[in-house]
């Protein structure tokens, strides 16, 4: 039983989910993130888009674009 628990612990702690990438407008006033780089909401971005992780975008207080929800 002890070996099964150790094996399960090793399997579950070594399994990493892939990180989701999102796109944001490069301006400092960005408020939304986008799953698709060609999202309609990014069409007015004149500062270029930046690829980042979903966790980081949410940590900056950004929310999902209304065109993608």
Based on the model shown, name its key terms.
4 strands, 2 helices, alpha+beta, 28% helix, 69 residues, two-stranded antiparallel ribbon
Lay out the secondary structure:
Elements: H1 2-14, E1 21-25, E2 32-33, E3 49-53, H2 54-59, E4 63-64
Parallel strand pairs: 2-4
Antiparallel strand pairs: 1-3
Report on the structure:
The structure is a single chain. This protein has 69 residues and is an alpha+beta fold. It contains 2 helices and 4 strands; from the N terminus they run αβββαβ. The model has no long low-confidence stretch (mean pLDDT 83).
A few lines on this structure:
Helices cover 28% and strands 20% of the residues.
Structural class given helices, strands, pairing?
Answer: alpha+beta
> What is the 3D form?
elongated
What is the string of SSEs from the N terminus onward? HEEEHE
Rg calculated over all Cα atoms: 18 Å
Q: What is the CA-CA span between the terminal residues?
A: 46 Å
Helical residue percent band: 25-40%
| Counted beta strands | 4
Oligomer: single chain
- Beta-strand percentage range: 15-25%
Low-confidence stretches: none
The major sheet is characterized as: 2 strands, antiparallel
Secondary structure tally, helices: 2
Strand order of the largest sheet: 1-3
Average of the residue pLDDT scores: 83
